[in-house]
Design goal:
Elements lengths: L3 E5 L4 H12 L5 E4 L3 H10 L8 E4 L2 E4 L1 H9 L3 H5 L1
Parallel strand pairs: 1-2
Antiparallel strand pairs: 1-3, 3-4
Helix pairs in contact: 1-3
């Protein structure tokens, strides 16, 4: 299983929703809080300039945000990316 990293803030409902999908699938993930400006700057660079949260990475693949994650799940592609 590839490493999952999710960049979040503590007040983001989309972050909660994305983490809930991972929790339902019993997947472990690393959560990085980007309320710290240094962490936010790292996220923006890694995400190709995207500033919104969540930003989700599976291994080296940039999934995008919550809607992107749920779209992959709906299309049956999320499990393929994870393995």
């Amino acid at each position: 299983m590839k490493k999952i990293t999710i960049y979040t803030t503590s007040v983001c409902p989309y972050c909660v929703r994305a983490k809930a999908l991972f929790d339902r699938k019993s997947l472990k993930y690393e959560e990085v809080n980007v309320e710290d400006q240094q962490e936010r700057d790292k996220m923006i660079e890694k995400a190709g300039g995207r500033r919104t949260v969540p930003q989700i990475f599976i291994g080296s693949v940039h999934v995008g945000g919550c809607d992107d994650l749920y779209a992959l799940e709906k299309e049956g592609k999320l499990d393929k990316i994870l393995n």
